[in-house]
Specification:
43% of the residues lie in helices and 0% in strands. By secondary structure, it is an all-alpha fold. Helix 1 packs across helix 2.
């Protein structure tokens, strides 16, 4: 089910994924009859909610970036 339009302000970002991850996302989207963007939004939302609630730590610590990439948006 698509999310309602116009109910929230949004921001557009661009990410690069390796081909294997993209293929898996494409398969999930196809199987669920949704867009890849929807799957990514859903995954990001789950990470954000888990982080906010303190319920679960991500598999890889988000604060583990090196000083050379800090603040650049890359890892």
């Amino acid at each position: 089910m698509p999310r309602p339009r116009g109910t929230r302000k949004t921001a557009r970002i661009s990410v690069s994924l390796d081909a294997e991850d993209y293929a898996v996302l494409t398969e999930i989207a196809r199987r669920e009859d949704v867009s890849v963007a929807w799957v990514v939004r859903r995954a990001v939302g789950e990470v954000v909610r888990a982080h906010q609630s303190g319920a679960a730590e991500p598999e890889l610590p988000l604060s583990g970036r090196s000083a050379s990439t800090k603040g650049t948006g890359t890892q």
